Amino acid sequence: MVPLSYYLVLSGILFACGVVGFLIKRNIITIFMSIELMLNGVNLSFVAFAAHWHALAGQVFVFFVMVVAAAEATVGLAIIIAVYRTRETLNVDQVNLLKL
Amino acid sequence: MSVHLVLFLAFGAVAVAGAVNLLAQTHPINSALSLIAVMAALAGEYLLLGAEFVAALQVIVYAGAVMVLFVFVIMLLNAGVEEQTTGSRVAILFGVPGAVLGSVLVAWVVLRHSGTGEVPAGALPGPPATIGPLLFHEFLLPFEITSILILIAIMGAVVLASKPPSAPVPPREEN
Amino acid sequence: MPIWLYILASVIKSAVVLVVLLTAVAYTVWLERKVVGHIQNRWGPTRVGPFGLLQPLADGLKLLVKEDLTPPHVYKPLYIAAPLIAIIFALTSIAVIPFGNPVTIYGYSIPLQVTTDVNTGLLLILGVTSIGVYGVALAGWSSNNKYSLLGGLRASAQMVSYEISLGLSLVGVLIMAGSFSLHDIVDSQAGHFASVTWPALDPVLRFIPRWNIFTGQIIGFFCYLTAAYAETNRIPFDLPEAETELVAGYHTEYSAMKFAMFFMAEYANMITVGCLATLLFFGGWHGPVFGPTILKAVLPVFWFAAKVFVFLFIYIWVRGTLPRFRYDQLMAFGWKFLLPLALVNVIATAIAVVW
Amino acid sequence: MTPTLNLWLIPVLPLAGAAINGFFGKKSSRTAVSTIALFFCGAAFLWALSVAWRFSSVAPVHQEYLAHWIRSGSFSADFAFYLDQLSLVMLLVVTGVGFLIHIYSVGYMWDDAGYYRFFSYLNLFMFFMLTLVLANNYLLMFIGWEGVGLASYLLIGFWFAKDSAASAGKKAFIVNRIGDFGFLIGLFLLIQHFGSLNFTQVFDLVTKLPAGPVTEGLLTTIGILLMVGACGKSAQIPLYVWLPDAMEGPTPVSALIHAATMVTAGVYMVARSHVIFERAPGALTVVAIIGTLTALFAATIGITQTDIKKVLAYSTVSQLGYMFMACGVGAFSAGIFHLMTHAFFKGLLFLAAGSVIHAVGGEQDMRKMGGLRTYIPWTFMTMGVATLAIAGIPPFAGFWSKDEILWKAYQANWIYWLIGLVTAFITSFYMFRLLFMTFFGDYHGHQVDAHGHARPAHGHDDHGHGEPHESPAVMLVPLMILAVLSVVGGLVGIGNGFEHFLAPVFGTGEATSAAGEGASHSLELLLMFVSVLVAASGAVLAWVLYVSKPYLPQKIAIALGDLYSAVLNKYYVDELYAALFVKPLVDGSTTILWQGVDRKVIDDSINDAADGAQQVSDNVRHMQSGNLRSYAGWIAAGSAVVIAYMIWLGVGR
Questions:
Q1: Is the model's pLDDT at D2 over the cut of 70?
Q2: Closest CB from B95, B106, B112 relative to D636
Q3: Which is nearest to A73 in space by CA: A39, A26, A22, A27?
Q4: Residue B96: its chain D contacts at CB < 8 A?
Q5: DSSP of B25-36, one letter per residue?
Q6: What pLDDT score does D126 carry?
Q7: Do D621 and A95 touch (CB under 8 A)?
Q8: Percentage of residues of chain B with pLDDT beyond 90
Q9: B129: nearest CA partner in chain C
């Protein structure tokens, strides 16, 4: 038997790692991966809650999250490719034209 | 210290290690692989929770499809080791502490209720047979909407990535 | 059954299956060389042993003792990891494949498969194969060579593309069986036809088993076979290792045992595909069972092996017959023909079942 | 209220005219404009006549409910109309005289640029005035009250290009505000104590109030406050100063608004709320004193004025004083009676004066006139009739009403009577002075006047000078009609006919005096004789001074010296007000409000705020570095804060 809170803490750790990765990584692809990491952390908490409340809907939600993540990955990577074509770099610090 | 707990801790350790490695590695391909490890470990956690279908999907969709796409893009763009530019002090000064603080707070709150909800191994067997009706009856509309979303994503990817003649990015989100 | 016995049985089963599988791999190579040779009006290997039956041993020995050189420009960790990934996942996917009904020894029913019958076995296989992509892709990338890179790119793109068709082609069978468990799927194909309307035809019909291939999954089978060939990078879809275009594709830089690993992985995958085809479309181990108990126990496994052999032969036959596609043709075929076909199959099957 | 009289038509018709002329008049021709204006005004007049015709068949007080207006708690004020003998009289006077003056204006204003504007304003004034008259509660009355103020402002400043006109308009407006302030406070008091502004309800409650010092004090306060409002509107001391300046407006305006109708609104209001005043003797006394003083005061000023319209203006003020005196002594019907007759002859006087000005080409200084009776006989005759009427020569209208007032005043207190008598003498003197200076002697049209009292021509220069010429018929016909009215208008008062007609309204307010009447009938006749004598002597004196011995006035003026100049300068009242109120106000607002508050406080604070915002945003702008990770950092930090806050709120528990 494992307390629900352990699962939640684990998912929280993964999510935090994703956030930190988003913050400290320069490579746009890695940053994108950090987003996926966050999504995974959230999924874990979904499944844990589903098991806790005996509600399969949680797992269905995970399914939807995956679908959305896949779509987002597709478009995001396509955008990355487009950006790379134009800016010749993957470093987000150098892709900062969108400002005042 | 039940078997369940042991397995949980093992998979959890793998997941956390992979996540940390993702941050530590400077080469995107290594980060990608460590992320795959995280996903595999999470699949294990799902199995522990009895969500077989979700576990399988986790492997097939995430590890087998999305991450393949990542690796593909890394290879396509031949992404090298990331250069250590200091573009944003804010992210380091406020962001990281903020993220850590937030997670710590959440963990604190959650752990204060430790022991309330015990999740037995395979507490909720989620075989496809039971997921299916849920997915195609209760959540039929969201399901259809996600399909439309995916269609749009395909077209968006094609439009975005196919300007000059180059290796085509195969739209890659079915499964 | 006590846990220790369970573990013991598992160990024994894994060992047996591993040995058998590796041997099968080795002799599949021999078979291929022989058959292709005969197709091309050659003899194939003849020197080593009768009919060159010892050729695989010689090859293995050679690959083992050859110098394992690692080019200086490669990205070492992945360069080393890639073949391991390939072979490991290739062998893993065998684990969930049942070879026959559980046999009872001393009152203990032992399933004839490495793991117990997980009710998502098929999904597991799909997942493993989808992971297997990384072997090729990483190999291509890490060897830091443009031919290899192209090979890796091709491999990943091709495999992920055809994985969709592969999965969809199986859905028809899943609908008819109503389960992911390979056991259930196989059991759903037990027995033979019997016409209620025309009893006169029964003498003929009862010789036709109720395999999925006969119960309407012919299209699904075709889709599965094609997609599977693409998944295993076999001719006519062996773009990643097209000798004539990119020297040897993703394993250009590999030699000796690492190369052997890729090699074995490929053939192991072939066998897995054959097993799956047998289980899903050709009734698995079902077949005429007769004779004494021991024979009764062995025959199903024999039938299973025989069917798998047929598929391996078809593999080789195809290789000896068909030319290689162009890459754009590959993609177009996969996305514009195979995928819609598989979808149509799914819909048709669903309608038929609901009817 | 068995048969509905559709009273609402009466105010609404002029409003329609005003709207049509105001919106479309600019494009349409003068004929169309005048047709519309006259049609709607005349329609209102005819409807008023029909109402008067059917009125006898209606209950003595006819109320008509039109629509909700304000319903807050127990308080309610509706668009409802109230018709009794009093408002009927006002109705007829307003519509009738108004219609005549409309006709007159067609001729008088024909050459003016703002023709449509003028008639639109005029109709608007009619609308508001009728609303004022017909309102069945003080609030609606106040709307009309303010509305006529607005109309009068617009019309006084009709030639707004002229500074004097614009400032005169402003003056009228501001002075009226002072009065309205008092009026409003009175209304608030009414609401506070009676919870209603409806005439009937208020008056019922007032009559039911128990006698005693408390009630008396309250009603006296209310009455005096209402009186202040009336003073503002009807130009009584101390708020009369705006009326003479109001003569800057076109002459028909002076006739209609500043002689016949609007300025009498105060009197009407006091009469309307007679119930309150009757129970507040103190307030009545104030009214009487103010009225009396105003009458005398304004009359004395009127002697020295040389501007023909100013003379008439001051005489208006003094006549209004008469009316207030009547109300003050409780003779409301007499006041209303005089109001009516005064509307006739003073309107006539103004119109005639306008005709004169029209004749001599915009000249208003009487010293540049003279001998005009041969040039403009009709104007002369009508104006003569009016002069006789105002002077109180029997059997003209003025005689009856003024005599009535004097008689009542005598019954109340002989001092009122005495002052009224003196005022009557002065009145007849300066009126005949005006008449003689204008029409007798010989024409000084082109000679430079000795005193250098050059007054600017009133926008009629396009008439061109030259020989004085008679006005067109469209101007003369109203003059004649009014002349006839001035002659016969007073006859309704014979035998207290008018008083009995108004009896249902004012009840037996005069019953006591009526009782004493029989006894002192001979006395009344005596007083009547005296007043006529006085009026005649005034006329004779004027004849002596201005016709037979024209050199005398100079001598007298020099002899009187300072007194004369004081009177000539209207007792320096304007200068006094300027020194007392205007200058401190202007200086204070300039130094404190403008330089101090507006510049220092408001402007500076706003500028500082703007500068601060600019600087802050200048610094904050750098937050938008365009760097993805920085944004993410802000988000992460913010989310941490939010999480901490929620935990602090206790979401975790």
A1: no
A2: B95
A3: A39
A4: 633, 636
A5: -SSHHHHHHHHH
A6: 92
A7: no
A8: 1
A9: C179
pLDDT average, residue stretch C209-227: 83
Q: Which residues of C touch B (CB under 8 A)?
A: 75, 77-78, 118-120, 123-124, 126-128, 130-131, 133-134, 137-138, 140-141, 149, 152-153, 156-157, 159-161, 163-164, 167, 178-180, 331, 335
The domain that holds A20 is classified in CATH as: 1.10.287.3510
CA–CA separation, C249 and D54 (whole Å): 116
E-strand ranges in D321-406 read none
Q: Structural domain boundaries of chain C?
A: 69-354
Residues of chain B neighbouring C350 (CB-CB closer than 8 A):
none
Mean pLDDT of chain B: 79
Which of C120, C126, C141 is nearest residue B29 as measured by Cβ atoms?
C141
Q: How far is A47 from A55, CA to CA, in rounded Å?
A: 9
**Shortest CB distance from D636 goes to which of A19, A92, A93?**
A19
Give the pLDDT confidence of B84-111 residue by residue, as tens digits: 777 667 777 777 888 888 888 877 777 7
Mean pLDDT of D569-584: 80
Give C189 to chain B, closest Cα distance, Å: 19
Q: Looking at the complex, does the CB of residue D626 fall below 8 Å from at least one CB of chain A?
A: yes
Q: How many domains does chain A divide into?
A: 1
Nearest to D165 by CA among D246, D251, D256, D253: D246
Averaged pLDDT for residues D147-153:
90
The reported pTM is 0.56
Could you tell me the pLDDT band of residue D131, with boundaries at 50, 70 and 90? very high
Contact between chains at B105 and D629 (C-beta distance less than 8 A): no
Q: Do B88 and D647 touch (CB under 8 A)?
A: no
Query: Distance between CA C120 and CA B53 in Å, rounded?
Result: 7
Nearest to B91 among D623, D633, D647 (CB): D633
Shortest Cα–Cα distance, B34 to chain A (Å):
10
Does D632 contact A23 at a Cβ distance shorter than 8 Å?
A: yes
Amino acid at C271: I
Q: Measure Cα distances from D25 to B68, D20, D22, D108, D474 in Å.
A: 81, 7, 6, 18, 21
At least 3 CB pairs under 8 A between chains A and D: yes
pLDDT tens profile B20-74: 988 888 888 888 888 988 988 988 888 888 777 888 888 888 888 888 888 888 8
- Looking at the domain assignment, is residue A99 inside a domain? no
**Banded pLDDT at D461 (limits 50, 70, 90):** very low
For chain D, the average pLDDT equals 83
Kindly report, residue by residue over D180-215, the tens digit of the pLDDT.
888 999 999 888 888 888 888 888 888 888 878 888
Candidates C327, A79, C338; CA nearest to B162 is A79
- What range does the domain containing A35 cover? 4-94
D298: tokens are 């304004």
Domain assignment present for residue A100? The answer is: no
Closest by CA position to D351, among listed D482, D470, D243: D482
**Which of A31, A61, A74 to probe the B interface (max B CBs under 10 A)?**
A74
Q: Are the C-beta atoms of C236 and C229 separated by less than 8 Å?
A: yes
In a domain, A30, yes or no: yes
At C281-315, the pLDDT tens digits run 888 787 777 778 777 777 888 888 888 888 888 88
Are D638 and B92 in contact (CB < 8 Å)? no
Q: Do chains B and A touch (3 or more CB pairs under 8 A)?
A: yes
Report residue D75: phi and psi, to 5°. Answer: -75, 140
Q: What ipTM did this prediction achieve?
A: 0.74
